[in-house]
């Protein structure tokens, strides 16, 4: 049925505006490619004028305000939205191939989700991404939309509750051409986050000097503003009043976001269509929910691997997974094990499992073509099933990566390739009983540019008329040619989807091979990759700035709905100092995905390779992580059920406090734990912001004496600041050297009371490795509350995990309440408790069955 929608329109038009010298903040670049001159500018029908403020990257050749399209007639109301017909109003062109007629469809998909799709009526590339329908109806949308023709066509999206304009294309520059699409968007705030994957120096984007962020998957180490492994055209805006919204642009071509000082964004892509989804929140966590719905490279011998494992176990640093990189392979061939240097690896993996340690190994996508016929099943079967990416002449494209010979690249968009890949993984598991898989080099990476014999021909696909500022000014630098062909189309369109297309068959095969819950870890990701894989932040540098940047990357991928992510602790490239690695282990204990990994030929940097103090620092940090694993596990379960973030910025919890908007040296686990690591070399003090709430020191229960203010205090090499937010209840478990042993320890609760002397929390638990526990109901869930009448209620709401009755709730710690002299548990006096000088109540030896309701009264 049709429903009433909020929209408006203006039909006035303005043509032939004077060629004035526009203010810097109102310009849209007419010559984003290099080499602008007055003559070239005039040939594009644009205005040439020096910037008012020099050296700020302000465009000096810019588009006139009336450049764009013109709306024909009135917006037509259709079921759940509007259709608008557009006609191009000028013969001037930037790069040629402009579409004369366009159709804009505004779909009111739910009260909180709006889709804007703009096409030209011709067959064009569209991303083959599965888009789940939203939950709920669209009878009361949080948004409205308005259209205008003044001075050219534009539209704006407003938040109905506040009247705030969230997305306004009147910034100008709207272009829809065969290989160049552009849209200028005015934003309601400078608090903009996301757009990845790039190495960003701050979580909140800067608008100074018109920074440009390019999205084109690239398998090279981070290099500040250069594009990296994943492609996520997704940004979140924290509005001035604390509301938030997110925008996702479903486009897989090479693209860039220019941060415009208005503030705004100029979005450009060189293919596809405009397919824009807006999520209205209104809270920061709502926007993510709505968008939803240790290791080393260089183990050259098994004895080296054994040495690391043995010293980690001897140092008693908690440790769950051992990784095997390409060094375990026979001549770096996928699906093989080096029979000399890693003889006995399969038996050693079995031995590790008896110690409670799991094993993850690696696969690269490219397959060597140089093995004798009949000796390498991965290639032989691939030839038989015709699974390779082709050149325009229909022959397989040849590249070069780690193997000695040339390689072919699988076409993961093809169903036969999916079947081939799943079969190979399952067969390899019969030889090496791994627990999970890690896929690398899947941007895809190539050690040569394009085909190793032919390179890349000269044509408009390989050398398009406009090129975003990609590395080396080439789309095929260290990857395939854009005109190479897979079953979904040309690589020009599908390059950014390569890791995404490999992820599903890898995850499926791993689960089928292992037969238990597992995960796949991918370097390259795209919109929706979190459905199948987790992510590590690539080949980062062992440097202090990368220590800080890792927080930014972690927070970004939580926005991108891949919360189980983190970087290589201590860095991958270069050699880490003991101080840096110690501080990184402290921070790394609080990445959702926590592993230590570095490059071949670098010094060992597992914590046990350093001196005694670093071992102790690492042991302490990881023991805290294991103590808090039930809380982290609960956050991950909540994400799996409803979306949202696990690690989050302070502004996500305190959106109306403007001080939090720029903080990226602190972060939170969920809503309950504030984490402030030391990020500076030689630091003797730590500066910390405490938002407007009660916070309690994790180690002592001492209440932080400031609120909505900065505090600074002296530190030692052992310091990491952890503070529990008032109003929170965190489930815990006694730490051990791995999770198998930790699960045998007693459970506990940390309670932190808020201003009303209340607190609440949730607790999720399951078998740890059963398939789809949430879908099958084979899990445990409890809700815990403490009210102002000092009664703690533990209420079981789901009791589907059969072995939960073996778990014991042994201790409860309460922070922020008055001194207590009497404790009753389920109506029976309990005498085993004490108060600390910091007014922390510790109740111990409870011996409660964890899957039964209980009540604790405190007086």
Automatic annotation (TrEMBL):
UniProt key word Signal: yes
Localization in the cell: Membrane
GO biological process, one term: carbohydrate metabolic process
GO cellular component: membrane
PROSITE patterns per UniProt: P_TREFOIL_2
Keywords: Disulfide bond, Glycoprotein, Glycosidase, Hydrolase, Membrane, Signal
InterPro entries tied to this protein: Gal_mutarotase_sf_dom (IPR011013), GH (IPR017853), Glyco_hydro_31_C (IPR048395), Glyco_hydro_31_TIM (IPR000322), Glyco_hydro_b (IPR013780), P_trefoil_dom (IPR000519), P_trefoil_dom_sf (IPR044913)
Cleaved signal peptide residues: 1-18
Molecular-function annotations in GO: alpha-1,4-glucosidase activity; carbohydrate binding
Source species, domain of life: Eukaryota
Pfam families attached to this UniProt entry: Glyco_hydro_31_2nd (PF01055), Glyco_hydro_31_3rd (PF21365), Trefoil (PF00088)
Domain (P-type): residue spans on this chain: 19-65
Family: Belongs to the glycosyl hydrolase 31 family.
Protein name per UniProt: Maltase-glucoamylase, intestinal
Originating species: Folsomia candida
């Amino acid at each position: 049925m049709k429903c009433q929608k909020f929209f408006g329109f203006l039909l006035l038009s303005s043509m032939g505006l004077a060629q004035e010298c526009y203010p810097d903040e109102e310009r849209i670049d007419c010559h984003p490619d290099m080499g602008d001159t007055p003559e070239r500018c005039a040939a594009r029908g644009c205005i040439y004028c020096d910037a008012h403020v020099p050296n700020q990257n302000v465009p000096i050749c810019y588009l006139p305000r009336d450049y764009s399209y013109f709306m024909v007639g009135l917006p037509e109301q259709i079921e759940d939205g509007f259709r608008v017909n557009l006609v191009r109003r000028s013969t001037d062109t930037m790069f040629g191939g402009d579409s004369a007629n366009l159709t804009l469809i505004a779909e009111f998909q739910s009260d909180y989700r709006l889709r804007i799709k703009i096409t030209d009526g011709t067959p064009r590339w569209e991303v083959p991404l599965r888009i789940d329908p939203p939950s709920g109806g669209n009878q009361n949308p949080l948004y409205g939309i308005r259209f205008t023709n003044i001075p050219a066509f534009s539209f704006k999206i407003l938040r109905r509750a506040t009247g705030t304009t969230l997305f306004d294309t009147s910034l100008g520059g709207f272009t829809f051409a065969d290989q160049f699409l552009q849209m200028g968007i005015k934003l309601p705030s400078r608090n903009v986050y996301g757009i990845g994957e790039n190495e960003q120096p701050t979580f909140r984007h800067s608008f100074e000097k018109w920074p440009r962020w390019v999205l084109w998957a690239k398998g090279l180490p981070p290099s500040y503003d250069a594009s990296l492994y994943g492609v996520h055209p997704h940004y979140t805006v924290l509005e001035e009043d604390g509301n938030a919204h997110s925008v996702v642009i479903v486009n897989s071509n090479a693209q860039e976001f220019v941060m415009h000082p208005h503030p705004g964004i100029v979005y450009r892509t060189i293919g596809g269509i405009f397919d824009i989804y807006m999520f209205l929140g209104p809270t920061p966590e709502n926007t993510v929910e709505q968008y939803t719905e240790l290791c080393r490279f260089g183990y050259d011998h098994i004895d080296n691997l054994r040495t690391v494992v043995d010293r980690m176990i001897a140092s008693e640093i908690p440790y769950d997974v051992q990784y095997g990189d390409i060094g375990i392979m026979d001549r770096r061939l996928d699906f093989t094990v080096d029979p000399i240097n890693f003889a006995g690896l399969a038996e050693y993996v079995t031995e590790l499992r008896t110690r409670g340690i799991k094993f993850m190994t690696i696969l690269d996508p490219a397959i060597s073509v140089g093995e004798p016929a009949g000796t390498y099943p991965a290639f032989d079967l691939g030839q038989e099933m015709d699974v390779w990416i082709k050149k325009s002449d229909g022959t397989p494209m040849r590249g070069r990566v780690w193997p000695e010979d040339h390689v072919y690249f699988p076409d993961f968009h093809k169903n036969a390739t999916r079947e081939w890949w799943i079969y190979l993984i399952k067969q390899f598991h019969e030889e090496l009983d791994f627990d999970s898989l890690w896929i690398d080099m899947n941007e895809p990476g190539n050690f040569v540019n394009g085909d190793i014999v032919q390179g890349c021909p000269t044509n408009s696909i390989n050398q398009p008329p406009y090129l975003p500022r990609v590395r080396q000014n080439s789309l095929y630098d260290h990857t395939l040619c854009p005109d190479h062909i897979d079953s979904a189309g040309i690589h020009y369109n599908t390059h950014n989807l390569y890791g995404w297309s490999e992820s599903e068959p890898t995850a499926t095969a791993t689960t089928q091979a292992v037969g238990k819950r597992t995960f796949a870890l991918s370097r390259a990701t795209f919109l929706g990759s979190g459905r199948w894989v987790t992510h590590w932040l690539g080949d980062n540098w062992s440097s202090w700035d990368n220590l800080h940047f890792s927080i930014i990357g972690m927070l970004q991928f939580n926005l991108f709905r891949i919360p189980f992510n983190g970087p290589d602790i201590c860095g991958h490239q270069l050699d880490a100092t003991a101080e840096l690695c110690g501080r990184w282990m402290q921070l790394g204990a609080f990445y959702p995905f926590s592993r230590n990994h570095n490059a071949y030929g670098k010094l060992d940097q597992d914590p046990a390779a350093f001196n005694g103090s670093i071992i102790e620092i690492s042991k302490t940090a990881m023991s805290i992580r294991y103590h808090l694993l039930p809380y982290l596990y609960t956050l991950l379960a909540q994400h799996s059920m409803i979306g949202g973030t696990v690690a989050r910025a302070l502004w996500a919890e305190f959106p109306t406090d403007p001080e939090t908007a720029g903080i990226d040296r602190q972060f939170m686990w969920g809503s309950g734990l504030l984490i402030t690591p030391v990020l500076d070399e030689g630091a003797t003090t730590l500066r910390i912001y405490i938002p407007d709430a009660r916070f309690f020191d994790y180690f002592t229960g001492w209440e932080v004496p400031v609120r909505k203010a900065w505090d600074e205090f002296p530190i030692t090499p052992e310091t990491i600041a952890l503070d529990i937010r008032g109003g929170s209840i965190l489930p815990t478990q006694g730490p051990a050297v791995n999770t198998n042993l930790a699960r045998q320890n007693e459970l506990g609760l940390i309670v932190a009371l808020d201003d009303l002397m209340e607190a609440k929390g949730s607790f999720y638990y399951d078998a740890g490795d059963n398939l789809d526990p949430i879908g099958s109901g084979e899990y445990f869930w409890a809700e815990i509350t403490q009210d102002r009448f000092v009664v703690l209620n533990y209420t079981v709401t789901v009791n589907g995990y059969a072995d939960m009755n073996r778990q014991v709730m042994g201790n409860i710690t309460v922070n922020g309440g008055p001194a207590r002299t009497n404790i009753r548990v389920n109506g029976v006096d309990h005498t085993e408790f004490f108060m600390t000088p910091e007014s922390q109540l510790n109740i111990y030896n409870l011996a409660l069955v964890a899957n039964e309701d209980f009540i604790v009264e405190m007086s």
